[in-house]
Amino acid sequence: MDHKERVPDAVARRLPGYYRNLRELETEDVLRVSSQVLGKRMGLTASQIRQDINCFGGFGQQGYGYHVPTLKRYIGQILGVDGKHQMVIVGAGNIGSAVINYPSFRKEGFRVQALFDISPERIGQIVQEVPVLPVDELEAYLRAHSIDIIVIATPADKAQEIVDLAAAENVRAIWNFAPVDLSVPATMEIANVHLSDSLMGLSFRLHEREVAQEKGKQWIKE
Amino acid sequence: MDHKERVPDAVARRLPGYYRNLRELETEDVLRVSSQVLGKRMGLTASQIRQDINCFGGFGQQGYGYHVPTLKRYIGQILGVDGKHQMVIVGAGNIGSAVINYPSFRKEGFRVQALFDISPERIGQIVQEVPVLPVDELEAYLRAHSIDIIVIATPADKAQEIVDLAAAENVRAIWNFAPVDLSVPATMEIANVHLSDSLMGLSFRLHEREVAQEKGKQWIKE
Fold first, then answer.
1. I want to staple A95 with a disulfide (CB 3.0 to 4.6 A). Which of A141, A145, A153, A154 is the partner?
2. Does domain B85-197 have CATH number 3.40.50.720?
3. B9-79 in CATH: which number?
4. The pLDDT value given to residue B5
C-alpha cells in the first residue's frame, strides 16, 4: 500500500489520537473497530474517521471495520514511533520527572539517555535508571552522543540558550515545556507544551459561556 | 470599546500566546510594542498580528504600536484570567506537582484549593500550602466547596470516573492530563494536555523530513 505524498495538516494533528486509541483497543484485545466506535471514542463522526483514514490509503471494508493491529502499525510508521529516538531532558524538576516517568514513551521508542540540571541536590541522582548530570556538561554530551530530541523543562529565561546550543550540535528536535516562544533554525523541529496557554484557553471558554449567559449585558467598557 | 460578539477560533487559540508575550513585555518594562516586534516574538507576521488585534476592536495607532498594559489587560479580560478560578487537582504525582508549582497560575487567579491522591504516602502531605486529601473524599469536598476546574492528573483508567463525579457536582471545567479522550456533558468545558500526542506529533514531523530527504524511495510496503 502506498503512502500518499503528504498527510494534510488537519489529519496529521489527529494522528497521535488515532494511535493512542488504537493502542488502547489493542490492549483491550479488540481486533476490528468500526468507524462509528472509533469516532465515538475520539469525539469525531464516523464519516470524519473514514475520510481521515482514506487519506492514507483506505483500510476498512464496508461492514467489517478496520483491522486494529494493521491500522495501528501503519499509523505508527507514519508517526515515526517505530523508530528509536534518543532524548535528553534539560531540567529535572516536576516536568522533567513527569516526562521520564511517563509510562508509554519507552515502549514507543523514545529513550531518555540523560537528565541535566543546575541544582547540586539533583545532580548525581538516578531517575528511572537515568543519571542527572550538571547542565554545564550538556554541550560536551551532545558532541559525544547522537541525540535526536532535547526536552526543555527549564525556566523560560534559560530555554533559548539550550536551543542555540542544541542547534550548534545538530540536534534535530526540541520538545519545549518552558512558557516561552523559542526561535529554532529551519533545520530543527519544535513542539511546545504550553501549560499556561492550555489553562487560559480553558478559562477563555468558561468566560465565553458566562458572557453568553449574560447576553445583552455590556461586559467590557473602556 | 466593544468586544465583538465572538472571537474567531483561530484567533482564540492564539490569545494565550498574546497574553503570555504581553506579560513578558510588561516585566521587561516595555510600554509600547509594534506589530513587527510582537510578531517576531510570536512567530507571526506583522499583518497577522494587526488582523488578530483588529478582531477585538483595534488598539494600535499607525506608527505608535500597541500600548502593552492596555492590550494585556484587555486580552486578560477576554481570557477570563482576571477572574478567580477555584481548582482542585486529582493525582499528586509529577504532573499534579508540576501544576501546583507552576509559577504564574496563582498570579493569574487560578487557585488550587486541594490535591487528591490515592497513595497513603502522599495523603496528608502539604504541597505549596495545599493539603493532599484522600481521593475518597473528593465527592464530599466538591459538594461542600465551589470548585470551577478539576485538574485530572491520574492514570488513564481513572479519569472518566472523576469526570462523571465532577459533572454530578456541577463542576464547570476539566483540565485533563490523562492520556485518554474523555466524554464530558454539554454543561462542561474540557482542555486536554496530551503529552504523548505532542511527542508523537514531533516524531511525525521528524519522520516527514526523513521521508522527504529520501524522496523517491518507497518507504512503506505492505
1. A153
2. yes
3. 1.10.10.10
4. 58
